[in-house]
Structures are given as structure tokens and as C-alpha cells.
Request: fold
Amino acid sequence: MAELRWITTDAPGNERALFDTVVERRIGRGAYRGLEFLHVESRTIINRVPRSSALPFEYTINAYRGCSHACTYCFARPTHDYLGLGIGRDFDTKIVVKVNAPEILRHETAPQRWAGHPIAMGTNTDPYQAAEGKYKLTRQIVEILAERGNPFSILTKSPLVLRDLDVLTRAARTAEISVNFSIGTLDADAWSRSEPGTAHPRKRLDAVRRLNEAGISSGVLMMPILPGITDHPKQVEELVKGATEAGARFIMGGYLHVREPLKDHVMGWIERDYPHLSRFYRHTYGTKSYAPPAMRRRLGGMIGRAKTAHGAPGGERRPPRDAKSRKQPNPQRALFG
Reply:
């Protein structure tokens, strides 16, 4: 049994311990070889995001911590540090599983306790990462929200979400829901280097198409675009074209942003895989978290022109931070744009 410093929120700064020990460790076998699952029993599952944050949602659910998608740039890596685990390989392979998440959610969303606010999933780690194939916690969560008629959004990189098309369709009959995909590039080399555990981006586009055909709103978040790696005009246009052809309800994009302590991890990856860009990245992000305004404007112009050229939907759909209605749209912005 190992100790974890369990945190009440997925945002840094709130460090009241909820949990002291891992209930059980399980070593992944077969399709899950190389992974270690840390079973915990959480005392709460719905997280309220501080109002001081700039995020466009107020309530989140994350059934897992750590992510086998192993995206080099993942903003959530530091959350493993909060638990006393490493933000590198530990984050990719030691997956914290809140095994009692459905039970707690049913309690927390009881009508006398819960007002039916929209809930965002995928705000910390992917709810449809490999662990979901084994534990099916996200499916159970979606089933409960469907029973409650509660609006929700999902952000994912995994076509595994199509496994749950039946329950998602049922949920969409009683509440506004959306299932949105993070797709930063269609460039096979850049994808395989930066997101080695994810499904091919074109499989994600196919999932966008199938969800929209089933009447479930699905859009594409072109995030993060990596400067000098995935921001060539042809790369950007190819992705906009693919998302438009998949019927994406919205298309939004943005450059990588990177903060400490993640910055050293990302810079180390750049030095190994793209050494010719090392100086450029250190100049661009050395003292800043975001790409310079001029770069962001240039990218916005490229996306805008590509959307116009291919007849993509216009505008950005941003959900209200608080919703009084039980039926309100909540498409989700990426946290790593």
C-alpha cells in the first residue's frame, strides 16, 4: 500500500487531503501491459472549479488521474506531482482509478442535493483513455447523468467513446450534451511523436462524423497547435478541411501553452525530437506561458481563412459558466490551447 496526497480539486492550490492510501494496486496485463492501476475510493467526484479561474465551466468530473495517451504537452501532468508521483513516465503509466465514482455520483446528483448544473468531463485527463476499456467508469457516469437528465460535455481523443453511443443517444433526448475531440494535427509524424498513446487523428475525425450523424453535437478543438511543428498553413488547412467534412459543429484552434513545472518536461522533449527548434522554443516560452500575440493572430488568420475556404461553421461556441436551466448547451473549450 502506497501513500497518495489526494486533492479535492483538479486545479492547483486546493490541497486538503481526501485520501491517504491506495486501496489496491493492479498491474495491467494483455492490452493493458505496461500500465499500473491504483485503485482509490474518492470521497467526492463532482469538482467545483474556483470562480477566480477563467475556465468556461464550473463543475467537472474526472474518474481517472494520469493518462496512457502520454501526450507530451499535457497540462494535467503536474496533477501527478500533487499526488507524490512523477509528471513523466509515472503520469503515462500509473493511472489512478476512482473505483467508487459511479456510486458517489449517484449520491451527489440526488435531486434534493443537486440543481442540474452542466458538468464537463475530460478537463483533467481523458475519460476514454485505455483504462476506460477496463473499468467502464465513464460509461457508468454517463448512464447516471442520462437518468438525471443532466447536461454534460465530454472532451476526448479517443474513438472509444463510440462504444457508448447507445447511452449518449439516450442522454441527448433529455439534456443538451456534446462530445468534442481534441485534434491538433493530421500530420502522422508529429502526431506519433507528441501523442504516442492516442488513436490516429483521422479515426477521431471519423468519430466526430459518426456522433453528428447520430444527432450528438461534436466539434473539433485544434489544440494544441505546436509552433514550428504543426502550424504550417497546409497542415492547418488540412485539419480544418477534415473537421468540416466530418460535420464538426464548431472548429476552434490555439497554440500550445505551457507552464511550470511542465515547461522543463516539454523543453526536454523538444531537445530530443526537434533539436533544431530548441532555441526557438526557449525564446518563445522561456519566460512566458503563451505564444506571442503576433503568432496567435497569425494562427487565427490561418484558421479563419481555411474555415471560409471550406465552408466550416463560424464563430466559437462557449458555454455559460453557470447554468440555471437543466437543458443548456455546454461545448467545452480545451485547457491546453
About this structure: The mean pLDDT is 88.
